[in-house]
Amino acid sequence: MLVSYMRIIIFGPPGSGKGTYASRLTAILGIPHISTGDMVREEIKAQTEIGRKIKEYADRGELVPDEIIIAMLINRLEKPDAKRGFILDGFPRTMRQAEELEKIVKVDLVVNLNVPDEVIIQRLSNRLICGRCGAIYNRLTLRPKVDEICDICGGELYRREDDKPEVIRERLNVYRRSTEPLIQYYRGKGVLRDVYCNDLMTPPETIVNEILKIISEYEKESVER
Ligand code: AMP
Predict the structure, then answer these.
(1) Radius of gyration of the chain from its Cα atoms, rounded to whole angstroms
(2) Could you give all domains of the chain from N- to C-terminal order, each with its CATH number?
(3) Which terminal CB of the chain, N or C, has fewer other CB atoms within 10 Å?
């Protein structure tokens, strides 16, 4: 398999399962999962100078200014593990971010998750995150073995500050306005593949397998090219 050198973007609205699928794909493919949302939450938790600057944006469901998030991402991509490829989750979210990314790396594949709003709202309003390792759970579909405790590291689970109904609405608006136009951008480059998840109860493995199929088709095509 050639996958270890692939640069993949998992694209989709908040609550489309990007983080869940990306973390599973990382374990299978052996390339890092780079989530700008996780990076933002870590800065805020550690109360760094950047963290203090971006907290308000993240809490309101707005985008962090391009300059800040682009600098954070470039910094992360310079780490040695990212030289072997990566799965990007939550970046790019604006045209400017996409253009900056293109200046530093060639994106091989963009997996576009298509999920109806009802499923997103149900999913986000029941989502739980591990405060220690960031693993994602769901009260309806992905319950931890012990209530409120992470199966993987034993950390305590919490609800994200931005998973409140009014903030979810704002995040969906921001997605439609600033991020959705990127679908056309990547479709035009011929690197975008669509995946559909219309049912809240679809197990993550089903979608992960679909994405793996897309990845192996891409590999076959690039060998033939
Ligand atoms: P996420 O976990 O991907 O939903 O991201 C959580 C929050 O972090 C977002 O609502 C934004 O405030 C911020 N954020 C994450 N990635 C980006 C990005 N690429 N551009 C701007 N803001 C971002």
Answers:
(1) 17
(2) 6-207 (3.40.50.300)
(3) C
